Amino acid sequence: MSTATFVEIILAIILPPLGVFLKFGCKVEFWICLILTLFGYLPGILYALYIITK
Predict the structure, then answer these.
(1) Are 16 and 22 in contact (CB under 8 A)?
(2) Distance in angstroms (rounded) separating the CA atoms of residues 28 and 6
(3) What are the φ and ψ backbone dihedral angles of 7, each rounded to 5 degrees?
(4) What residue intervals traverse the membrane?
């Protein structure tokens, strides 16, 4: 695991859309994560961790 991935994982736990944004930009992954985070914090975290570590 690289340092960048570690930082993205930490950011995904603190603020899920930010971690996804740093990895993918404003693509569909970011918007899905943002919507899931608005529906509930836990779904946003789970999706962000899944998509970053995939």
Answers:
(1) no
(2) 22
(3) -65, -40
(4) 2-22, 32-52
Q: Which of 42, 41, 51 is CA-nearest to residue 20?
A: 51
**Amino acid of residue 30:** F
Query: Do 44 and 17 meet the contact criterion of CB atoms below 8 Å apart?
Result: yes
pTM for the model stands at: 0.88
Dihedral, CA of residue 27, residue 33, residue 37 and residue 43, to nearest 10: 170
- Backbone φ, ψ for residue 26 (5° rounding): -90, 45
Residue 31 DSSP SS3 = helix
**Residue 4 CB neighbours (<10 A):** 10
